[in-house]
Amino acid sequence: MNSYERAVLPVAMALSLYHRTGDPVFQHLLRRILPMKAYIKLGALALLGLASACKSDFLAEKPYSSYTPVTLNDSLGTDASLVGLYNHVSTIFSYADQQGWPSVWQVGTDVANATANQQGIEIPYYNYALLTPTDGAASFTWNRNYILVNLTNIIINSMDSPTMTSLSTGGKARASAEARFFRAYAYNNLATCFGGVPILTQALTGPKTDFVRATLDEVNKLIVDDLTYAVANLPDIESVRANAGGAKLYGRANKFMAMQLLGEAYLRMGKPELAEPQLQGIISSGRFSLIKRRYGVGTSQPGDFYHDMFIYGNQRRSQGNTEAIWVLEQENPSVVVGGITNNPQQRRVWGPAYYNIVGMSLSDSTGGRGIGRLRLSNWVLYELYGSGDVRNSQYNIRRRFIYNDPSKTATFGKVVPYTGTDTLFSIAPHTTKWYQYNPTDAFGFAMIKDFMLMRLGETYLLLAEAQFKQGKLADAANSINVLRQRAFSSYPNTGQVSSSDITMDFILDERVRELIGEENRRMTLMRTKTLVDRATRLNSNSAVNPIRGLTTTHLLMPIPLGEIQLNKDAVLAQNPGY
């Protein structure tokens, strides 16, 4: 089975998740369900579905000639399909067929450059003249999000159907809210990357080759409607369901996830006055607090409280991370079958290839095996951080290497010198957020860390942006200062900012200080329409693979040519400039 097929088997993840949490859904699925395949591609055959069920004899398969999953006929089947949405979203972050995928969203911006070890898919995202409608990253982005749209539509349509009588009114509302959150998530991604796109609110039941682009306003309305419904019907994070052992499933959708996404979407729409109350609501809920002291795994080792938040085993709310709003939880597939959908490349992309240095060996303290596909920009490394900022501590931005191979007695324990091109590739300074060493996979092809997709630190940054855009400079400074008080031990003597310091550029700078390695930087700069200015002004001097050909065209990605060509019965218009 290839990665494409794995990506559209949501029930498989449900089997794995509920098996390890002890939920009765697992037994229900074993009795009734074989893996479901769902495939959507605009302009192509659109959706090919296959669902199978087994009775007493595992081999006695009953094929169904239907595009709607047979699982959606009771609460257990519905929940299994909902869990499948998380599985599908994980395929966006764990994609490994093109190992430079994480680089696409960082290089060619203000924060990073591709090294000599670029893989290929990221090349048009710093050499923009090569970004054409045949681009693989744009196609994969379109594909993953529209698959998610169709999977959510299947659930939403089922909850709206009068034949769905096995769930209570409240149960249907909660299931629909969870699916609507993910539909809004997909459409917000699409709107940010492509602008106005085709709207689908009904699950496809056959080939469709007449898609047309909706206006951006129409797409935005769908996003707002879905998220407003989700906020009203999703549970509080402390009211999420528990597994059979009584442990709360904090990885499942909660109302605050919908509020954060709605706040960000409103900012993209130019409606900061609507974004602010959503973000304030998260903060004032009292459910979350910034990490300000050491906790969890690794407290016996050197480090700091900010670094603790990114240690494997500390990322989840159940593991002490009080800042986490949405953590996409992953598991080691050597321990849990199906625990992760592919082989995430984040550590290999962000971590330097220090194993190339004679006298350096792979270790937990050096983060496992990176291969240095990107390097932080000189602006980030040498200009961004103020003195005393914990986010730039030796535990968070590593700048110093020690020879650690005891077999090389001449160098063991000495500082590795920065010489030649090593500083661009092998021992480049780097964020430690993706450190993760698995002794059973010393080569380090896969990474098994969770993906922290929303946390309170970003909530304050989005709030500051909403306040700034309304001219509330003092309020924006106060929001930023909440983070800076956490970051600077000598605050307010150092670190404090005033209303006169607050500009959009300053807020975007602060996002890098707080979220480097976490945020999708390209999408942030596309959303704020600052990509061209900031990438050109702050990151035009890379010695290797410099930014070339960047224009306002690249504030959107190209509509994939294959989608346009296969959409034979209507015009699927291309974005200007492509």
Q: If you had to describe this structure to a student in words, what would you say it looks like?
A:
- It is a single chain.
- By secondary structure, the chain is mostly helical.
- Helices cover 38% and strands 6% of the residues.
- It has 19 helices and ten strands.
- The strands form five sheets. A two-stranded antiparallel sheet has the order 1-2.
- A hairpin with a 6-residue loop joins strand 3 (51-54) and strand 4.
- Residues 1-67 have low confidence and may be disordered.
Features:
578 residues; mainly alpha; two-stranded antiparallel sheet; 10 strands; TPR-like_helical_dom_sf; membrane; signal
Can I get a quick summary?
It is found in: Cell outer membrane. With 578 residues, this protein is mostly helical.
Q: Uncertain spans, ≥5 residues at pLDDT below 50?
A: 1-67
Describe the main β-sheet briefly. 2 strands, antiparallel
Contiguous helical run count: 19
Proportion in helices: 25-40%
As a percent range, the share of strand residues is: 5-15%
CA-based shape? globular
> Termini separation (Å)?
34 Å
Task: Please state how the strands of the largest beta sheet are arranged side by side.
Answer: 1-2
Q: Indicate the radius of gyration in whole angstroms.
A: 24 Å
Structural class: mainly alpha
Average pLDDT value?
88
Kindly state the number of beta strands: 10
Order of H and E elements: HHHEEEEHHEHHHHHHEHEHEEEHHHHHH
Protein name: RagB/SusD family nutrient uptake outer membrane protein
Keywords: Cell outer membrane, Membrane, Signal
Domain RagB/SusD: 447-578
Domain SusD-like N-terminal: 57-238
